[in-house]
Amino acid sequence: MKEKRLMNRRKAIFTGLTSAGALLLSGCLKKAPPTYGNILRMGDDLTYMVQRGILSQRALAMEYQRSDITSFPVTDIGNPADPTSKKAYNKEYQELQRDNFKDWALIVEGSVAKPGKYSMDALKKLSQRTQITRHTCEEGWSAIAEWTGVPLAAVLKDAGILHSARFVSFYGFDSYAESIDMLDALHPQTILAHTMNGEDLPARNGAPLRLRVETQIGYKNVKYLQRIVVTDKFADPGPDISSGWSWYTGI
Amino acid sequence: MSIPQNQKTESTRHKRWVKSTHFIITLSFLALTVSGYVILMSHPRLYWGKAGNDLTPALFELPISRNYHHGGWEKNIPFKHLTGSQVSAARTYDIFNENGWGRSTHFLAAWFLFAAGLIYFVAGFFSGHFRRNLAPARREFSMKLLWADFVSHFRKQSYSSSKYGLLQKVTYLWVIFFLFPVIILTGFTMSPAITASYPFLLKIFFGHQSARTIHFFAAVLLVLFLLVHLVMVIRSGFRRNLWAITFGKES
After folding, report:
1. What is the CATH number assigned to the segment(s) B18-247?
2. Theoretical Cys-Cys bridge with B47: which of A102, A216, B130, B209, CB 3.0 to 4.6 Å?
3. What are the extents of the domains in chain B?
4. Do B202 and A136 touch (CB under 8 A)?
5. Whole-angstrom Cα distance, residue B190 to residue B212?
6. Any CB–CB contact under 8 A between B34 and chain A?
7. What is the ipTM of this complex?
8. DSSP state of A181
9. Of A1-10, A24-33, A186-195, B84-93, where does mean pLDDT reach its minimum?
10. What pTM was estimated for this model as a whole?
11. pLDDT digits (tens, 9 = 90+) for A33-77
């Protein structure tokens, strides 16, 4: 009896360790962001690989009813149109805003066949998607809003994305930047939103265009978009890893 | 290590897998408690429902950081095309936020707890640990006995060490089969990527913010359990108990 139990325990531990190891190995180590030897970043990468390995990559985030829409705080690094904002002020943005963004155009470059600029009209001629989704902030709060915009996949397709492309970086006029992998970039709910709750994207919510990634935490959603860059290799253009934050925030 | 055929019967010793998983779970639980508290400090407001933030009513607020009632908000701007009273407002206050390491530490510790907990769970079932040591015997199903056991904990008495008491069994079962599953599942419910794949989580916990609030209360109950557990460990012979859970034999 005793012998039998001892085997069961060993088997249990062995099976546990083997499956954990298999998960780690199969989880495409090459594509994971660098850890710089930091144990917290290793944990972030484990979460990233396991979520990519186990979760459905096409599943849609919960979409809500219009009656669920809530108030929406603005908690970014600053207003790029405000000269007193040390971190975010951008003279070009201030001038574009003065003209109601008439001359604004999104720059798309990197691993695409046709790099170039997209005016708001050009973007709106590509396909459109409206979704009522929840913004989940790392601080702990959440807010629900209706967003309308161009699926990022449509923009990438129009620009002729190359087969070698693996990541997309987003640069805002407020000098904030983020990047996401191709699975999130091509997710149907990942859109470049120009309309919020039925009106043109309000100034402090990221006018004229902002990113919505509904399968990640709030800080991935770059506002005041200036340009997007498609890359073949991992790029962390923003403040994430360099200032001690997780790059992947599906959790 | 060979199994010593000593004079003690099996039930008086902790199994090796009990000792090692208990040790890992203890350390990860401490890391989760500290990092969870730090995460809560950055937004010490709790809500009920699908979403909640500084511009919506809170269930209650905790005075645990400088963010409590900070009031640093610009004027509310209503959304023009919504019929409700939803607004947007920009934050002007520099909040306390240590979630960079706080969140990554929380999730890294959660991985250790999850792995050790899984081993404990599987081994507990297959080794008969749950059935033999934790499940109350048929004759123990009595409120009278439970009450007598409860009262006896407040009296000075000597504890028999070889078997768990009735109240002890009920408490351990509640912690293992209710509190831990609830705190893990409500943690999952706060993840945008996990809830995209498993939207039923948002249903069973009444939404993202309700899950966060339940997560908080489960954490409070687990910390209370830890305190009572420690008091009992000390009262019933701290050195002997510590020896038992570390080396598995009674001194």
Report:
1. 1.20.950.20
2. B209
3. 18-247
4. no
5. 7
6. no
7. 0.90
8. E
9. A1-10
10. 0.90
11. 999 899 999 999 999 999 999 999 889 999 999 999 999 999 999
Q: What residue has token string 């099996």?
A: B10
> Residue B158 to residues A59, A177, B10, B224: CA-CA distances in angstroms?
57, 63, 21, 23
Interface test with B, best of A62, A205, A246 (most B CBs within 10 A): A62
- The answer to whether the Cα torsion of B86, B92, B93, B98 is positive or negative is positive
Q: Where are the alpha helices (DSSP H) in chain B?
A: 16-42, 99-126, 129, 143-152, 166-174, 180-189, 192-197, 200-204, 208-235, 238-247
Identity of the amino acid at B197: S
Q: Which CATH superfamily is domain A59-238 in?
A: Oxidoreductase, molybdopterin-binding domain (3.90.420.10)
Contact A140 B43 (CB under 8 A): yes
Chain A: residue nearest B216 by CA?
A: A140
What is the arithmetic mean of pLDDT over A157-169? 97
A235 neighbors A244 (Cβ within 8 angstroms): no
Peptide bond into A208 cis (omega under 30): yes
Would you tell me which residues 130-189 of chain B have a C-beta closer than 8 angstroms to some C-beta of chain A?
none
Distance from CA of B80 to the nearest CA of A (A): 7
Please check the confidence at residue A21 and state whether its pLDDT lies above 80: no
Q: Which residue of A has its CA nearest to B39?
A: A139
Q: Which residue has the tokens 């996949």?
A: A153
Rounded distance between C-alpha atoms, residue A82 and residue A9, angstroms = 64
Whether B127 contacts chain A with CB within 8 A: yes
Residues in chain B: 251
Domain ranges of chain A: 1-55, 59-238
**Is B65 in the A-facing interface, judged by CB distances under 8 Å?**
no
Of residues A34, A121, A82, the one with CA closest to residue A203: A82
Q: For B76-122, what is each residue's pLDDT tens digit?
A: 999 999 999 999 999 999 999 999 999 999 999 999 999 999 999 99
Residues 6+ apart with CB under 8 A from A196: A72, A145, A146, A147, A148, A202, A205, B79
